[in-house]
Amino acid sequence: MTAVTDLVVARGLTREFVVGGERIRPVNGVDLTVQAGEFVMIVGRSGAGKTTLLSLIGALDVPDSGSVTVADVRVESLKGRARDRFLQVSVGWVFQTAGLVPMLTAQENVELSLRVAGVDEDSITQRATEALAVVGLEGRFAHTAAELSGGEQHRVALARAVAKRPIIVIADEPTAQLDSETAAGIIHLLCTVATSGTAVIMATHDLAAVASADRVMLMEDGRLTASPSMKASSTGPRIT
To answer: What is the pTM of this model?
Structure first.
């Protein structure tokens, strides 16, 4: 029997901001564990704290209290170059907007992220090509980002995230600006990433997507709970 591996462990995460003289707490004592190969979706209304939580897990922000470990690395303790290295190598971020360099080709956009991550130059082209093939862009390698459709740009962004073979992929509303068919394709690809053994955490408003998750969590008023009204598929993200 294969041992269960918790790649992400968050305990008592809290983050506060002062907005207009009022103190708000978008993340309020959150606990979360995510296993290797698990696809976890976090749902909730706008302003519920989803993005703030993902930022704390993925080292874009630091909690006021609590802890986050990713593969035994204490994320909230990372500083300077160590934090930069963690972001470059261990986390694959996917956002609402693709964030590509417009005049670089799809291939060049993915290769750039691999260079930043310090991947050996001899391996960069092959890994970028393989990642773009996984997301179905075999015939679009040489097209610039400006020449790609919105859906294709999001596929390149996902290829860029997974090509460096991160420990965890974090997707913040990746389908929010996509039509339903393109959104379904992105969810399918994230399922494939989870199947490969990478932990995937996705924040979403798209309730049509939750059937593809292993686990669905509800974010409300800064707190995270299991969502009994939105059951994930019993088979999880194993779409073929």
So the answer is: 0.89
